[in-house]
Design a protein that fits this description.
291 residues, ABC transporter involved in vitamin B12 uptake, BtuC
Length: 291
């Protein structure tokens, strides 16, 4: 029975990790940005969603909407205040732009964490379940909220897949990830495409933060761990590979779930870090990465 419980819980957790990592991967694949403020943006969405739901009577769904919008706004601020000025700066050599982006987003993520700590303290909080009640799955009593989270995650990932593969905007995103210079020669503005990517990223990350607050709970101390987990997943899956990130999310998710159930819940973050070290030694380009 415990094995089935691990399978069910691990699936929900891995789905949530996959949702968070997909936006992270899309960002790097199209824009070439490894956003180390990722955990901070999830934190903003989770805490503001919880705050509106708990202290202002908006309920879990009202809080979820506010949280997703907060994630989107935090994404835009990250782009317009941190990333875009670095990309447009004439004082930064192109060869050094990536390290400045890493440093800038890392420091911005720390600022977000400190700000959220100041506003809400570092006490863990949990958003009211989006779906109350219990369902029996092959003899395992599972919260309806856990089932809803897995469905919501894969629903969002499915919508992203349809957008990328079936729409004109999606074709532009794919083209930008393959040959951005060629796309500009055809008359498309990369700044517009990048803004679309940051919009998608903000919505996905905001949703992931809200669902995380409803599932595990959240505190300002979690920002670093959230970024580390997402970074591990995209490295394991292969930078820029969405399918690789989804596979890696389940590897990391189940590794953490097994650790929590069989060893100690406080050691849950350790497997992600160990996997990251092994991947860097054995297969630096990841499972499905091209570079």
């Amino acid at each position: 029975m415990r094995g089935l419980q691990i399978l069910i819980d691990g699936f929900a957790i891995s789905s949530l990790y996959g949702l968070g990592a997909v936006g992270f991967t899309l960002m790097f694949g199209v824009c070439g940005v490894l956003n180390l403020a990722h955990g901070g943006i999830m934190l903003v969405a989770a805490l503001l969603g919880w705050w509106v739901a708990a202290d202002h009577g908006a309920g879990p769904y009202g809080g979820a909407v506010v949280g997703i919008l907060a994630g989107l706004i935090a994404s835009f601020i990250t782009y317009f205040v941190v990333v875009r000025p670095i990309q447009r700066s004439r004082a930064i050599p192109r060869a050094e732009e990536e390290i400045f982006l890493l440093t800038g987003t890392l420091l911005w993520g720390v600022m977000i964490q400190v700000g959220m700590d100041y506003l809400f303290s570092n006490n863990p909080v949990t958003m009211q379940p989006l779906a109350p009640g219990i369902v029996d799955i092959f003899g395992v009593r599972t919260p309806n909220n856990e089932v809803l989270i897995a469905v919501a995650c894969w629903g969002a990932i499915g919508l992203l897949s349809l957008l990328v593969n079936k729409t004109q905007i999606g074709k532009q995103l794919l083209a930008a990830s393959i040959n951005p210079r060629g796309l500009t020669l055809l008359g498309f503005e990369l700044s517009r495409i990048y803004l679309i990517v940051w919009t998608i990223y903000g919505l996905l990350t905001g949703l992931a933060g809200v669902l995380l607050a409803s599932f595990f709970g959240i505190s300002s101390d979690n920002a670093g761990n959230l970024t580390a987990s997402a970074f591990t997943i995209v490295i394991l899956g292969g930078l820029g590979s969405v399918p690789g990130s989804l596979i890696a999310a389940y590897v990391v998710g189940y590794a953490e779930t097994l650790t929590a159930y069989l060893i100690n819940p406080t050691l849950r973050p350790i497997p992600a870090l160990l996997i990251l070290v092994l991947v860097l030694y054995i297969r630096p380009r990841g499972l499905l990465g091209r570079r």
